[in-house]
What we know:
The structure is a single chain. The protein is α+β, with helices and mostly antiparallel strands and 155 residues long. A 7-stranded mixed β-sheet has the order 1-2-3-4-5-7-6, with helices on both faces. The protein has helices at residues 15-31, 42-45, 91-106, 122-130, and strands at residues 5-9, 50-57, 60-71, 74-82, 110-116, 134-135, 148-154. Helix content is 30%, strand content 32%. The chain starts with a strand and ends with a strand.
Amino acid sequence: MTSELRIEVDDLSRPQVHALLTEHLEDMHATSPAESVHALDLSGLSGPDVTVWTVWDVNTLWGIAALKELDPEHGELKSMRTSAEARGRGVASSLLVHVLDDARRRGYVRVSLETGTQDYFAAARRLYVRHGFVECPPFADYVLDPSSTFFSLSL
């Protein structure tokens, strides 16, 4: 990463963000059964209960993450994705720390997430465990699903 790396709240208006989110959704549908894809599209990410951040190196988009408020004490990490060029550079970790810091400022006591069980999601699962997330039962409106695994972090 360069010193130009910046994380900002995003309004989802830029074409680079649309392209990364399209790639993310396409990969989710390519690796998981349709009923097990819980990624939000642009309209879902535009909801009043969702904050989206992007990470940039100068004018290059390196990643995206969102935090959805489930209730005043519980947030859900959504749409965590880095570009192929950003992988292995600590971008996802930096973005995750930023989102978790914001969750703490909001007064959340817990952040949870759903991710896939397939090998494709192994790096994501390792990232979350490295940051203290532990497996948990389904939360919010999720149900048990062999293609999903759930994690939660007490803040």
